[in-house]
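dude i think i finally got it to work??
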Amino acid sequence: MDRLLDEIESYWSTRTEGYSEVNEKELKGMQKKAWLKTLESGFLEKKLSDNDKEQLRILDIGTGPGFFPMILAEAGYHVTAVDYTPGMLEKAAENAAKFIGEKSSNIEFKRMDAQALEFEDESFDVIISRNLTWNLPHPDQAYGEWLRVLKKGGKLMTRSGKPMKTTAGMWKKAALTTIICARILTAWRRSHCRFHCLRQSARDGM
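look at this
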C-alpha cells in the first residue's frame, strides 16, 4: 500500500466524529436543499419518475460520513458509496439510519480505494465526489478509474477542497492534482462523458 495512503487513512480515522458533525449541520441547514439542487441540476436533463430514479446508477467516491448518499437516497435515488477509511463507512451507515431511516436501504456502502475501483467498466450513470482528490497519492490514476466505470454519456461531478492537514506532502499533492485535472479535462474533450464542477456558493452556505 502507498505510504501516503496509509497516512491519509490514519488521519481521517481520527476525524470521523468531527467531519460527521460538519455534515450533520449541513443536513439541518440550507446546505442540504442547496446541494440536492446542485447535484440534480448537474445530472438531470428532465424530471424523473420514482421508477426512473431507481434505475439511475450513482456512485459517490470518498463518501466520508455519507452526506451526498443521504440527501440523494432521501430523494428516491439509489447510491453506491465508497470510502477507504472503515471508520468513515461505519459512521456513514450510522448517520443514514439516524437521519433518513428506511430510506437508508437505498444506499450500499463499500470499502474501496478510489484509485482502484472494484467495479466493471461502464457501471454508473453518475459519479460524484467532494473534497477527495487532494488526498490521493495518485489522482491521475483515480480519474482514469472513474472514467473507466462511468457509462458513455454519463456525468462526473467533482469538487475538491484545500488540504486540511498542511504537511508539505499534502500541499504538493494538491498542486499536482490541479495540473493533472487540466490534463484530464483535455482528455475528456475526446470522450463521450460529461464533466461538471461543483462550485462553492457563499449564498447557499456550500
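The first strand starts at residue 57 and ends at 61.
im so relieved honestly
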